[in-house]
Amino acid sequence: MIDNQLVEQKNLIKDFKSKFYADYEINLHVFIPPKEDDKITLNILEIVTLAAFYRDFPELSYIESLHNRLRKKEYITYVQAFSYLAYKLGYNKNRIGRYLNRTHATVINSCRRVEDGMDTKDKFTLSVYNSIIKELENYVGNLPKNIKGKNDSKPISNSIWDQARRLLAIHN
Hints:
Blueprint: H1 3-24, H2 42-56, H3 73-88, H4 93-100, H5 104-119, H6 123-138, H7 159-170
Helix pairs in contact: 2-3, 2-6, 3-5, 3-6, 4-5
């Protein structure tokens, strides 16, 4: 939701509450649950992870998703970094495991491996993590509804990008 729409929504709710109180002398409390689209989705995170993987290992571009069960170190490290980032973005380990067709124990192990790699300053783990973060920063997101009417391809600053920047700040 764009900032203008959010402000308009809040004003409409405020007006409604005022009118309701004037008519019935009852105070209303309106709770708006956060929308799921305020988070970076697992699908977008997978696209970004694969883009970083293809950029770093073009010879492995035949791999189409993170759902595969391969024993290549490069691939496994990217899947582990995906799991770690998804967990840091607020997804629980069961959900990440279901998304990857793995168990939550595999996700727990993946997160530990990435954390251990960061703690020991493992060059490969750090390069994989930084590669995904760099790709995430460059990810533009959704195309505008009227593509011909907008030539600006810069992303709109919103909570998704704020989450990514906070995640970057934690590990830099």
